[in-house]
Amino acid sequence: MFAVVIPAKNEEKSILATLTTILRLPVRYIILVINGCTDQTFKLARSIPDTRLHILYFSDPLGIDIPRAIGALYARHIGAKGLLFVDGDMSGDIYQNLLTLLSSVESGIDVALTNCYPYIPHRHKLANLVLKFRSRLNRELDLFKSLGLATPTHGPHALSQRAMHALPLEAIAIPPLTLYWAKKIDLIIKVATSIPHESLHSPRKHRRHARLIAETIIGDCLMGLSLIQNETPTRSIGKHKLIGYHLERRFDLLQRWEQALNSEDMFFEQHVIVPGSSSSPI
User: Fold this and answer.
1) What pairing do the DSSP bridges indicate for beta strands 82-85 and 2-8?
2) Does residue 273 sit in helix, strand or coil?
3) Is the whole-model pTM more than 0.85?
């Protein structure tokens, strides 16, 4: 009884293709986390008559990676036995890769990753800098030999039920911390599949967005590195603080969502749209 979590913000160009692939998977739940959309993503998703589709609708942007944690909490709440993360813009033909991730978790892997990196022949300087910090984090965790540059930040990945319940929410909302906590609590971490980056069909982003994403990921890695050293988490290198999109992460909404799920109050109910229900987003 696996669940798939799909974060989506303004993905009208790709969401139907992404969902078409995921609807073929042997999963019980498809959890689409729509946040801050101003396009037709929600309307397109609601047009799909599949009872496995649960839409979590947030009118405000949740910030990068917070939708993953929101979806993971909901998956735990409805009793999922494992979890697959696929971004709403991953519209490529990756069905077999997703099946492999699911089967890897079924075989006993707790954190199953996708390796997207050996297939990038010409990397921009900014990409090389990001990969430098990902490499450093994996090496400090003594995971580089088995994972290489693979990370939950990039590409589809899956979690076992054990990982879903054992990982702190922050470790899901800040993906590099998934590796730190998974290693700390002795979860089994493996690269389960490989996908050339271009095969994900994720659209190219503008230059400013690419820079902010890079700052976000490097800052996330720095937080992981400081935790390894038993230091207070920091996003700084010398006088430089790598913030990127980090401040836009709505940890306040994540915390409120967790509290609402536990008590099943209206804040939880008003954001969930289940097929066959007459409810509508606020």
Assistant:
1) parallel
2) strand
3) yes
